[in-house]
Write a structure and sequence with these properties.
- By secondary structure, the chain is an alpha+beta fold.
- The protein has one domain: Lipoprotein localisation LolA/LolB/LppX (outer membrane lipoprotein receptor (LolB), chain A, Clam).
- Strands 1, 2, 3, 4, 5, 6, 7, 8, 9, 10, 11, 12 and 13 form a 13-stranded mixed beta sheet that branches.
- A hairpin with a 2-residue loop joins strand 2 and strand 3.
- The N terminus is likely disordered.
């Protein structure tokens, strides 16, 4: 009887361990649509744009791809190393960040408090609930699914206080509204090289230097 219980325990432990392993790697792929009433040219430039989030344990990489180019954010929350890669019009720029830089840059959304709603709805293939926060005195709503949890929420555009996976949300920039909608959710293993920083081909600049350059412009 003891052997039977022991065998059952090993089998259950193995199943749980495998499930955890699969969830350690998560890929989220969002489509992006843009509302730009005063600038149709910008709206067209983002037609077909995508935003992909790769998560592997404490590492993350986000990639926004449009006809304008590609912008990626890479962060290792164990080592505290981060970089933003910008590839536009043949120019390649890598902005390096410290842990403090990264946390400061992403603090608005990551630290945002939400009130969870109870009205269920469906967006694409996902059953979702609303979570409402407030930015600059205006409502900010994220629709999320509770069907899974992410291995970490330290990536760009992460909502750390939501107990689930973001499915749809709007981000505003001036007169532009970017709508992100989750299209696919994958638990396939992501190669570790996905989170490596490039060793050449990019002009390198620190976050502080980049901030000073923006002020100068």
């Amino acid at each position: 009887m003891k052997n039977l219980f022991f065998t059952a325990f090993i089998l259950i432990s193995g199943i749980s361990g495998s499930a955890q392993q699969r969830n350690n790697d998560v890929t989220l792929t969002y489509s992006i649509s843009i509302s730009a009433p005063q600038n149709e040219q910008i709206a067209k430039a983002f037609n077909g744009a995508t935003y992909t989030v790769f998560l592997k344990g404490g590492e993350s990489r986000t990639e926004m791809v449009s006809t304008l180019g590609t912008e990626s954010g890479i962060y290792n929350n164990v080592l505290g190393k981060a970089a933003i890669l910008k590839e536009y019009s043949g120019q390649k720029l890598m902005i390096t960040l410290t842990r403090e830089n990264w946390q400061q840059k992403n603090s608005l959304f990551h630290d945002l408090d939400f009130k969870a709603g109870t009205e269920k709805s469906k967006i694409g293939n996902f059953d979702v609930l609303p979570a409402e926060g407030e930015i600059d005195g205006k409502p900010f709503i994220v629709y999320y699914t509770t069907s899974g949890q992410l291995p970490n929420t330290d990536y760009n555009n992460a909502f750390g206080k939501i107990k689930g996976i973001p499915v749809k949300y709007d981000l505003k920039s001036g007169n532009l509204t970017f709508t992100y909608t989750l299209k696919t959710l994958s638990y396939d293993i992501i190669p570790s090289t996905k989170f490596d920083l490039p060793k050449s081909g990019f002009r390198v600049m620190s976050y502080d230097e980049n901030q000073q350059l923006k002020k100068g412009n």
